[in-house]
Amino acid sequence: MQSVTGSLQAAHVLAASLQPAAAPGGGGGGKAAEVASKLDPVQLVLHASIPVKAVLVVLVVFSLCCWVVIGAKFLHLRRARAESHRFLKTFDAATNFDSMAHGLSAFRGSPFARIFATGYDEMMRMTGGQRQRLGEAEGTHVETATRRAAAREVTHLESWMTLLGTIGSTAPFIGLFGTVYGIMDAFLSIGNQQNANLPVVAPKIAEALIATAIGLVAAIPSVMAYNYFARRVQELADSLEGFAADVAARAKLGGI
Questions:
Q1: Taking CA 32 as the corner, what is the angle to CA 27 and CA 34, rounded to the nearest 5 degrees?
Q2: Average of per-residue pLDDT values in the chain
Q3: For residue 178, what are the CA distances in angstroms to 107, 127, 205?
Q4: Residues near 153 by Cβ (< 8 Å), separated by ≥ 6?
Q5: CB 225 within 8 A of CB 171
């Protein structure tokens, strides 16, 4: 009888030794699996706190506005450069202002054409519609008018670029606010639950870092586009100032 009991005890010991070892902490494996299933970026955004959601909405709107402005400004500058190139070729080949003025409708997108139109209109107003040399006062007036027209064209070329600069400079700080709030919320959860395990802090920190990432996604294209457009506008601005002076000088000679 004792031998049978000993055999049964040995069998129970052997069976227990063959069972897989339990994970430390009892249900830690289940909690880790639960955290892994919840750490999805979409779910984190959907279940984020209200301030973090507000930050994310603002940053998404900034990003959409940034790309809309980039597309519109790129098309604007490309058209302005293309039509200005054609206009300058025609302007250099024209014998007088009268012949050039008749074909201005073909260069509606050129800032150079609008400067010429301003100078031509002022010249004709000063001379009463006659082609003749301008006096010193009339010539100064035409020159001032063409310079003002050039300044207006530069301002028009720079339109909406301030929005790109604003997004590029503020989006990282808005994202940083969302990050700080998310980390603060994580520490509050640790304090309230008296528990610093990964399932408690991981979702809060993850949603905070998502705010930072979206802030950079909105800011980086804005800064790059702003620098690119600013360089292109400056190139055109330098040419516009020289062209305004050229139009004024030729207008003083009667538009020849």
A1: 95
A2: 82
A3: 48, 65, 10
A4: 111, 114, 115, 240
A5: no
Q: What is the pLDDT of residues 120-178, one digit of tens each?
A: 999 988 888 777 788 888 889 999 999 999 999 999 999 999 999 999 999 999 999 99
Please name the helix (run of DSSP H) or strand (run of DSSP E) that holds residue 125, with its range, or none: helix 111-127
**Measured between alpha carbons, how far is residue 172 from residues 33, 59, 103 in Å?**
33, 9, 49
H-helix or E-strand spanning residue 70 = helix 50-93
Count of helix runs (H) and strand runs (E) in the chain: 9, 0
Domain boundaries, the chain: 52-252
From the list 145, 146, 81, 73, the residue with the least C-alpha distance to 107 is 81
Amino acid at 248: A
What is the spatial distance between Cα 58 and Cα 175, in angstroms, rounded to a whole number? 9
